[in-house]
Design goal:
This protein is an alpha/beta fold. It folds into two domains: about 230 residues, Type I PLP-dependent aspartate aminotransferase-like (Major domain) (Aspartate Aminotransferase, domain 2, 3-Layer(aba) Sandwich), CATH 3.40.640; about 120 residues, Aspartate Aminotransferase, domain 1 (Alpha-Beta Complex), CATH 3.90.1150.10. Helices cover about 40% and strands about 15% of the residues. The chain is globular, with a radius of gyration of 21 Å.
Length: about 375
């Protein structure tokens, strides 16, 4: 394989400008002697809540844990159904399974890759207790009809905003339009840390109290447990690092949108489908996803040119072995299934240069021209 000329994500470029601050934050934690559930975690929770304009933020071990404690705090459990999409990372469904509920997969809008409100409403049964729309690739789902449908049917709403830190729709921020909003702090996310982490947010004090308890062995106070819980706490080191990154989130998101504009200009006219951004949306481009025919061949040819790409996600959850027992056939979610064979994630990170974007575009142009026998 040739040397990679354009990486899919460049963590070194991300860390270099904040390396000194990260080291200072880590030193501060080490010198404090408090490594779990201390002042750094409390500060992160306060700062993230203020950033979103919500009342409560609860730091947890990862984004999956945020979804899990959110479901449990809403009383979701065995015998309940939770509607979500199959075009997402498995953590969305894993959290549903972990609390004993059953995921019910519905189709997406073919243009945006996000939950179809009509498909959501059609899937509601007497056992439906919650819906988890996924804000995928940095774009928010159409929350107004989803929330309206949910409220009419008395269904709880949990936003999987693990790829949408700072995204907005109609002026509202991702994670703030539901009973619980859930975020991941995985290192490559728009807001990350130096390991694993997550945050769950809410404006309901009773939900917040239960999520805080569940993340720490069901404690009400030390050694007093209201119910069995888990150890889903976030370490002080991760909290301190996330605080450093939070101060840069808006700037990084603006840089991602700039890279996306460069892509849109450079890829204009090529035989592929570019991301759709509704007028009322502020996309934060966690990923820049196009649709293209013969995706796997194109991806292999780009790799030969040193251009790294990804596929998010190649096998929808309803077709994964892990959820085969649900009996959802391949033809049940046509837009989801059709898109899975065509989606291609191009390199995307705030530090990308215009030259790197042009290199990706030139590579795609050459590959597509070679495929049809037309000079590039």
């Amino acid at each position: 394989m040739p040397e990679t000329t354009v990486p899919f994500v460049d963590m070194h470029a991300r860390i270099a400008p904040i390396r000194t601050e990260l080291l200072e934050a880590c030193t501060r934690v080490i010198d404090s002697g408090i490594f779990v559930m201390g002042p750094e975690t409390e500060a992160l929770e306060a700062e993230f809540a203020a950033y979103l304009g919500v009342q409560h933020a609860i730091a947890v071990a990862n984004g999956t844990a945020a979804l899990q404690v959110g479901l449990l705090a809403l009383g979701i459990g065995a015998g309940d159904e939770v509607i979500t999409v199959a075009n997402t990372f498995i953590a969305t469904a894993e959290a549903i399974t972990a609390v004993g509920a059953t995921p019910v997969f519905v189709d997406i809008d073919a243009a945006t890759y996000l939950m179809s409100p009509e498909a959501f409403e059609a899937a509601i049964t007497e056992r439906t207790r919650a819906v988890i729309p996924v804000h995928l690739y940095g774009l928010m789902a159409d929350m107004t009809p989803i929330v309206d449908i949910a409220r009419r049917h008395r269904i709880s709403v949990i936003e999987d905003a693990c790829q949408a830190h700072g995204a907005r729709r109609d002026g509202a921020m991702a994670g703030t339009l539901s009973d619980v909003g859930c975020f991941s702090l995985y290192p490559a996310k728009n807001l990350g840390t130096i390991g694993e982490g997550g945050l769950a947010v809410t404006n309901d004090p009773s939900i917040a109290e239960r999520m805080r308890s569940l993340r720490s062995h069901g404690e009400l106070r030390r050694y007093h447990h209201a119910e069995p819980g888990w150890n889903l706490r976030l370490s002080e080191l991760q909290s301190a690092a996330a605080r450093v990154e939070l101060r840069r989130l808006d700037g990084w998101n603006a840089a991602r949108r700039r890279v996306a504009r460069w892509y849109s200009e450079a890829l204009d006219g090529l035989d592929l489908q570019l991301p759709v951004v509704p007028e009322q949306e502020e996309h934060v481009f966690h990923l820049y996803v196009v649709q293209i025919d013969d995706r796997d061949d194109v991806r292999a040819r780009l790799a030969e040119r040193g251009i790294a790409t990804g596929v998010h996600y190649p096998v929808p959850l309803h077709l994964q072995q892990a959820y085969r027992s649900l009996g959802v056939g391949a033809g049940a979610l046509p837009a989801t299934t059709a898109g899975a064979s065509r989606i291609l994630s191009l390199p995307m990170y705030p530090e990308m240069t215009r030259e790197q974007v042009e290199a990706v575009a030139e590579g795609l142009s050459a590959v597509l021209a070679d495929r049809v026998g037309v000079p590039a």
